[in-house]
Amino acid sequence: MFSRRTLLAGAAALVAVPAFAQTAHPMPKAGKRDWAKQVPVIRIGLLGGENEADRLQRVAGYKKLLEDTFEVPVKTYAAADYAGVIQAFAASQVDLAYMSPAAYAAAWMQSNGNVIPLLTSQEADGSTSYVSVLYVRADSGITSIEQLKGRSLAWADPNSASGYLIPRSEFRVMGVDPEPGKYFSRTGFAGGHEQGVVAVLGKQYDAGVTWSSGLGDAAQGYTRGMLRVMVEKKMLDMKDMRIIWKSRPIENGPLTVRADTPQSFRDDMMAFHQAVPIAYPDVFHSMDMGSGKDWVPVKHEDYAVFIDLFKAEAADRRKG
């Protein structure tokens, strides 16, 4: 999960580490590593949810910084949807990706545990979470979930926590059956978070769900999330949107590596990413989608709930 930032100036500044970067997490010294014999190219998966051109533009500085630091080529794989990166992990076709929490869980399941979460982004207030928001057009007259009965709803992606798993789970608790034709007249996958917002604005659906910090100025799309990204890209004016529901907090997704990569590679990826927020804040913000301040370590157990949600979804499908 990444945000849109102009990285031209940041990319030009990657030659030398700024003086203020000498912190508890200094940038690793530049040079080729022994692990390059086993990982000759760092292959990075980019989750779907935003158009490909914007994703590639945003990670240009990040890609160059990795190449300059470890002196190996870096290739980015911009998947059309979350499943593309999940399947690439399972097939050992990518080495590293910043995942949504549900996408990590799916990758862990599909790869038989061959993924490891390293770090997640921490917000300025110390939190490491975000929320799912349910949105409608401001001119729709809809102000509550109750008024959505018999209307249409766009999910973002079947492997998204905020855009599918969490709202479905919480809707059920509220007595709202999320299956098409039950409470909602129809539901469908928009193809990503950005695409879902576009579909609702274009009146293809009455409502959609996406991820957001849920904090800060709503008129600016909050402090981070897809709404904020689209406001920054001038694709969205929040005056045209109404938020009618927010979920419970969802743990931020992890920076994820394959478990069968060398330990020294994983150690270098940990050290590199922990140093970036201070050394290269523009590069960090291109990944955290907004106002984060740091990376903090996480473990597999932090995402076990999403594995349980996938299993619950599978059980519901079997009942149907």
CATH level-1 class of the largest domain: Alpha Beta
* Number of DSSP E strands: 12
On the 0 to 100 scale, the average pLDDT is 89
The topology string of helices and strands comes to HEHHEHEHEEEHEHEHEEEHHEH
CATH level-four homologous superfamily name of the largest domain: Periplasmic binding protein-like II
The share of residues in helices is 25-40%
Query: Alpha-carbon distance between the termini?
Result: 32 Å
Number of domains: 2
Which strand order does the major sheet show?
Answer: 2-1-3-11-4-12
Shape verdict: globular
Helix run count: 11
Largest sheet: 6 strands, mixed
Q: What low-confidence regions span 5 or more consecutive residues with pLDDT below 50?
A: 1-22
Instruction: Tell me the β content.
Output: 15-25%
